[in-house]
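Q: Structure tokens for this one, please.
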Amino acid sequence: MTPVQTQPRPADSATAFLADSGESSDGPDGSGPQVRDDMTVELALSVMAGAGAGHLFLCDEDDLCTGLITRARLIAVREGPAYTDQVRLRDVLALVR
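A: Here is the predicted structure, written as tokens:
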């Protein structure tokens, strides 16, 4: 196996990638887990924990990347008064727009 050198992105470059960016499902630079936007918040937090990731790229039914969501944002939603176990990631994105 050939070692690959990676370079972290600046912190604010991740937040710049939001809905309607026109990017492919690989995310802006092909890094980070991609999930469907119909996933629940709890499952997304579990995926993040398993992947050791601080964010997820969200994909629509056509597998096009529609946004990015951070662990901090999901935790804030989960701790909010309107949270139920039925809240989907697309619902969280709608709150951000």
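A few notes: The two ends are 43 Å apart (CA to CA). The helical segments are 11-16, 41-51, 71-78, 89-96.
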